[in-house]
Amino acid sequence: MNDWRSEHGGVPRSSIRASRGALAPGGVVGDGRYRLLAQLGVDERAGAHLWRARDGQLRRDVALTVLVGDPADVTAARGAQRTLERAAHASQFGHRNVARVLDVLSIGDGIASTEGLLGIVVAEWTKGTDLVDMIGDGPVAPATACRMLEPLAEAVDRAHNQGLVLGIDHPQRVRRSPDGTVRLVFPGPLPNGTLRDDVKALGAYLYLLLTGYWPLEQGPAAIPAAPTGKDGALRHPQNLRPEVPKELSALAARTIEDSGGGGVRTSAAFLRVLSQIAQDEEHKAYLRRTGAETEQPGYTEADGTVWTTRRPVTDAGQRKKLAFGATVLVVAAVGIIAWIGLSLISFFSDEDAAIGPDFNVAETTQQDDEDSDEQGEGNAGSGQEGPEPSLAEVEPGHVQGYNPKGTGDHPDRAPNAIDGNPDTSWVTSQYKQQLPALKPGTGLSLTFEEPIELHKVDVLSESTGTEIEIRTAQHPNSYLDSTEILGSGQVTERETGIELDEPTTVTYVMIWITELGGPDGAFESEINELTFYTSE
Amino acid sequence: MLPRVAPPGPPGRDDAAAGHPSPGADDVPAGAPEHDADRWAAPDQAESPSLARSAGTIAIASLISRITGFAWKVMLVWVLGIGVANDSFNVANTLPNIVYELLLGGVLASIVVPLLVRSQDDPDGGLAYTQRLLTVALTTLAAATVIAVVAAPAFTAIYVDSSTDRANSELTTAFAYLLLPQVFFYGVFALLMAILNARNIFGPPAWAPVVNNLVIMTTIGVYALVPGQISLDPVSMGDAKILTLGVGVTIGIVAQAAMLLPPLLRSGFRFRWRWGIDERMKEFGALAAWIVGYVLVSQLGYIVTTRVLTAGAPGGMTAYYNAWLLFQLPYGVLGVSLLTAIMPRMSRAAADGDDHGLIGHLSYASRISTVTLLPIAAVMTVVGSSAGIALYSIGQGAEGAGAERLGQALAISAFGLLPYALVMLQLRVFYALKDARTPTLIMLVMTAVKVPLLYLCPILLAPHQIVLGAMLVNSLTFVVGAFLGQVWLWARLGNLRSKRVLGVIIFTVAACALGVATAVGAGMLVPGTLPEIVEAWITLLVQATVGLGVSFGALAALGLEELKPVTSRVSRLVRRS
């Protein structure tokens, strides 16, 4: 092909035509009438490219057998001519399982000489499946194979009676039509094809359907060639797949083999034997179906049209019921997974929040005009900042008990108040009398690694009634008198936010409890978690 | 011949209602009318290059449009940050898509395009039909646009939950006024694209969205240069910044639609008002009703999503939206380069009643999606946060922890990538089978799962974490959808060879586990002393390379046959460009 590509390659305008040598989907052949849609195979013996195409004039799909070759090659051209003549003869022939030949195009008669084609056989299009695809999923049940092939054998028999060669001997020339039988889709017999070749092809199809191997020479690359024994003879289908009935296996092998006695040489003989076996198989299948549930999943058939190599599960109604059940199950399962997933996010991110500065937790769009100017350029245009400064969490570097006027109050548990885990806590000792009877107060002293502008402290505590003061000092162990009160509040709910009177830059912060929670006679305060907020 | 690859949203822009695949026409049948002087001339075949080749250019065009479309959204984060302003813009900018989609999207794909192709067989080459179609559609669009603009505050009230005071509905409304006129031009673009595609003109419609993206990028540049900042309180429509962004983005769509006028006129089409409804449109009524139903149901899910997000911490909407774009980027690229080849074959098999072939193609496409998308999803899980910081922590995007949260949202939801792709595939199969009902019902179940889970987010999660929850829920709904799609296809078609798909999934998961482990290991080698964004980029590149390399390497070593067409296809694409 490359030869004439260079010869004709100089024609720039008609790039969409096949003249560039490549028949590509979307290209047109036959003087622009047929638009190629999809290539379905190549019969390399004749250079026949098998295409599904669209007839632009009659607006229907057609099957094209495009004979490609060099018009200067006399042998090839003559061979193509012969194929076209034979196809033209075949157009008289009508059978359900042979696509009708609609037209035969040759050079100068439907094909421009520049197209680089020797001829085209146009046949009606057949819906269905590639045999190659079908076999790709495994062999077919014997009874199905018989049923698929019987009408084609019948067609061959009728054609042979009229002296016509159909040229079925390439697995890509046929397809499984929607009624489940094998149909010749791409007619165009080889120039030297004989009646015997058609009969051999029938045997070969049977072999192919039963085993998935193609026993004749020069089959398509997509189908593996049939294995041969040591002596070079074809292995019988039964040797490859034990479940193939003996008669069927023998029929396939005897039809294909040229040598030896007892060969099946005519289509009539093939058809007779095939029909007999098909009947027997059908009977057996019927017995299996009506008897106990079959033990041969691959070979049961729901009905005549659908074949499968697996158990054709149940009927559609039952499948629907199952599908409903599955729907409910999936929904429930995902619901549970989602709950778990969300809880995990919550769990992990809480820890994140305790580790580093976090996103904007405070509300940002309050109607509060003051301060908005000072927010200034830093947040300009980001838009997320309302007039009120947004706050970020900041974690103290160190915590210790702060008990300048006494002892006790579990200083060893102090770190629990900032460990990010609300389940652990720091707790005061238990007091019989409310503060300040025994001492003026107790608390925690926290140290930040660097000075921060403290805005607010969140106290997570169950000890309602606890009065807390936020104080600061120059030293973590300062005397109470040298500390300065920044703000105060009472624990009224589990989470209490204590706003500072005004934001203050601090390094050392005291959480000073001046009144304990708990019942009379057993006063104590427990702090699960302290969270400090600085401006961002 | 050009299949529209499931854009979740209107044609040309894939930023519609996040997470909601929209139906689209599969392939425009080939076959063109012959020449005739008295009527609208048929497309000149000799002039256009071969379809196979033009399909290649179109793949590149849509790839570029996806990438530029993604780029401007990243740029928007750089100038707007991840906060209230961007949230408001995002919500407002989805409104036109939604209105368009409800009005025309599904109908266009399911009715108009097939009829356009058929009408070419009319004696006049489809001229009258096209004129009638344009007349009806343009009037409807114009009226709808006016109503939508007037109703902008109502839209805001539906989509934005301002009860927690964390969202800014005034700003959303201001943007909505400026952006809603897009509805009309979306419609015009989609119609013209359909008309041109039906006449085998694919180039300009594929490139037009790129023009739109470039206009928007320019707009963002201008926005950055305009002095001042958006005043949030009070919000003023006259604000220079708001005007720049709103008008600029709308002009992008106008340009996109205008791009298609010259090619249409060149094809010989002349517009004339022609009133009345074509009889043939009625045939498709039932199918369209279900498709519109699908859109409606998916909108419900989307409304709840935006409400929950806008009630959460500011920036949530932006993070969700961008995480979603990142999430579906790999699918977009894969869809363009790989699935285009399979989709038409699938619909042809369905049209031929060839269930067997259909199942084969579906199974094959599922397996291809698995081997390509699972490793990407696995790596996304690892590099999520780094990707968020690397891409978004620039300019205003660096404010706060929004970029990282965006990345986390991506990481958390990455597992949904394959289910998402499968849902899109199954959707195609259902439509190819002319079954518009089942997808709608599946969507209904997905939404029924999604809505309560979304409302669970604010209960279980802190405001700033809601976006993580929302993305998680979104991915989980795709898991539901993928399961249901498979189950109901099975109910209809019988054995789907799911076992084989499952086998490939298991193999791939094993390979990905290996990839993830090495990627995590590699990430530990990146020094932590670098500036945040540099570290993020290095981590991203190192982990992505190592993770993908090891995953695909392991798959190749396992000898998965599904990988072969991918590698050959990729190398062919590389060679072509």
Structure characterization notes:
- The complex is a heterodimer of chains A (536) and B (577).
- Chain A has 536 residues and is α+β, with helices and mostly antiparallel strands.
- Chain A folds into 2 domains: 2-290, Orthogonal Bundle (Transferase(Phosphotransferase), domain 1); 391-535, Galactose-binding domain-like (Jelly Rolls, Sandwich).
- In chain A, 28% of the residues lie in helices and 24% in strands.
- Chain A is built from 10 helices and 19 strands.
- Chain A has helices spanning 2-8, 74-90, 131-136, 142-161, 195-211, 237-240, 246-256, 267-290, 316-355, 372-375, and strands at 28-29, 34-43, 48-55, 60-68, 101-107, 110-111, 117-124, 129-130, 174-176, 182-184, 391-394, 398-402, 426-427, 442-460, 467-473, 484-490, 495-515, 526-527, 529-535.
- In chain A, the strands form 4 sheets. Chain A has a 7-stranded mixed beta sheet, with helices on one face. In chain A, strands 11, 12, 14, 15, 16, 17 and 19 form a 7-stranded antiparallel beta sheet that branches. Chain A has a 3-stranded antiparallel beta sheet with strand order 8-9-10.
- Chain B has 577 residues and is mostly helical.
- Chain B has one domain (65-497).
- Chain B has helices at 51-80, 84-119, 127-150, 152-159, 169-179, 182-198, 203-225, 240-258, 261-266, 285-311, 316-351, 355-392, 402-413, 417-432, 437-460, 466-493, 498-524, 532-558, 563-576.
- In chain B, helix 12 (355-392) packs antiparallel against helix 18 (532-558).
- The radius of gyration of chain B is 23 Å and the shape is globular.
- The interface between A and B is large, with 76 and 84 residues.
- Chain B: One of its GO terms (cellular component) is plasma membrane.
- Chain B: It is a multi-pass membrane protein.
- Chain B: It comes from Haloechinothrix alba.
- Chain B: One of its GO terms (biological process) is lipid translocation.
